[in-house]
Specification:
Layout: E1 19-23, H1 28-38, E2 42-47, E3 60-61, E4 64-65, H2 66-71, E5 75-79, H3 85-95, E6 100-103, H4 109-112, H5 117-123, E7 128-133, H6 148-154, H7 157-160, H8 179-200, E8 209-214, H9 215-220, H10 226-233, E9 250-254, E10 260-264, H11 268-278, H12 292-297, H13 299-310, H14 315-324, E11 329-331, H15 335-340, H16 342-346, E12 350-355, E13 359-364, H17 388-396, H18 400-408
Parallel strand pairs: 1-2, 1-6, 2-5, 6-7, 7-8
Antiparallel strand pairs: 3-4, 9-10, 10-11, 12-13
């Protein structure tokens, strides 16, 4: 798996030849590294002897996490005791052979271990380092503890993932996945790509760069017009439940068989099509429905009218009617719906992946699709330290005797 030579296949993944060292745990940094690995980068994941804590998350079969099968895919695992001087030296030796490193320790933690950016750049001056933390590497909040959910709260997202004010006494709901962590991981991957471009392009300066990504800032950057509207008008963006505050009709509507179908008819031509389909041609151009602003002002009333109509159909019939009329729509998908979707299957976005622990596992495919240099799922999440001997031999030139010595000293398991 470790190679630098030109691959003989015609369509090499776009990141083939890039080497990335991952000092990540839980979600954000590992997600960043997985995105890079999916597109062909060689990712060396450094774990503690007990493995990344996320190996213990989610549903399991025979003690093995199904989540990890996808979360750790395409990575080579090496477990190192970074509290030992020999372990730290091995890590710095690995740094010399890598183009980039991604980590999500608390700010300053790696410096305390003697593994901060100065120590790394002493070994590899052009190293790109992506640091993901709760609040960023600077500022008065840098030392505050945070996970993705805190980033969602401070970034303004958790306030918006709720029903409209006054309609519920339940707490604002979570999105359902670790969105704050994953968005930060996306920005880190993007930052690494940008830094590599500036370092290596035609007349690049060959200098190392640091990518500083905060969970809070990653979420805040998604908040569309929230800050401009508050700054200019003092308007606080409020949650709208399933609706869109700036366009109507666009919501989830109930069906007779207990499903929900999203309908996005939020333009004049689409609303006219929907009104025709509902047998309410009288609404087209009528006062109160003749512009998007007017429809937004009467969104609640309009949603009630649409709901009365959708309740007369089962989800499959409703989707067929809407699709025939070319109105954007979809049933609210469950995992089963995603797994069965013909479009996902056709594009390899839902695929069976071989896994030594499970035989095969259903996983999501690679994003983005790059036909001229496609990524792939080369293997599922590895066992803790599975690739240590191969990495130590190929990158650091160690012998079997050297590796046995490291094991006897407890540096590697």
């Amino acid at each position: 798996m470790i190679r630098r030579d030109e691959d003989v296949q015609m369509l090499r993944p776009v990141l083939a030849g890039l080497r990335v060292l991952e000092l990540g745990h839980y979600v954000a940094a590992p997600f960043c590294a997985r995105l890079l690995a999916d597109l062909g980068a060689e990712v060396f994941k450094v774990e503690p002897h007990g493995g990344d804590p996320v190996r213990d998350w989610g549903a399991k079969i025979d003690g093995q996490s199904l989540w990890w099968s996808m979360h750790g895919r395409n990575k080579q695992s090496i477990a190192i005791d970074l509290k030992s001087p020999r372990g730290r030296e091995i890590l710095l030796d690995l740094v010399e052979h890598c183009d980039a490193l991604v980590e999500n320790f608390r700010p300053g933690q790696l410096d305390k271990l003697g593994l901060g950016i100065p120590a790394m750049r002493a070994r590899r001056p052009d190293l790109i380092v992506a640091q993901i933390s709760g609040y960023g590497q600077t500022g008065p909040g840098r030392d505050r503890a945070a996970f993705g959910v805190i980033g969602e709260a401070v970034g303004g997202l958790r306030h918006l993932t709720d029903h409209p004010p006054g309609t519920s006494t339940l707490p604002p709901v979570r999105v359902g996945v670790s969105i704050g962590d994953s968005v930060a991981g996306l920005y880190a991957a993007f930052g690494i790509a940008c830094a590599l471009w500036q370092r290596d392009r035609g007349q690049g300066d060959g200098a190392g760069r640091t990518v500083d990504v905060a969970l809070t800032e990653s979420v805040l950057s998604l908040m569309e017009g929230m800050l401009p509207e508050y700054g200019a008008l003092g308007k606080i963006k409020e949650p709208t439940g399933g609706a869109i505050a700036t366009a109507a009709p666009s919501n989830a509507y109930p069906t007779i068989d207990g499903e929900w179908v999203l309908i996005a008819a939020n333009s004049a031509p689409l609303f006219a099509k929907l009104a025709e389909l509902m047998g309410r041609r009288d609404l087209v151009g009528a006062h109160g429905y003749d512009s998007n602003a007017a429809r937004v002002a009467r969104a609640g009333e309009l949603d009630d009218l649409i709901s009365q109509w959708t309740r007369g159909h089962d989800a499959a019939t409703l989707v067929k009617l809407l699709s025939t009329a070319d109105i954007p729509n979809s049933k609210v998908y469950t995992a089963a719906d995603c797994a069965a979707d013909s479009q996902y299957r056709a594009r390899g976005m839902v695929r069976e992946v071989a896994d030594s622990a499970f035989g095969t596992v259903l996983q999501a495919g690679v994003v983005p699709h790059i036909p001229e240099g496609p990524g792939d799922v080369r293997w599922a999440g590895p066992m803790v330290g599975e690739h240590a001997p191969e990495i130590l031999r190929a990158l650091l030139g160690m012998t079997d005797a050297d590796i046995r010595e490291l094991k006897s000293e407890g540096v590697i398991p």
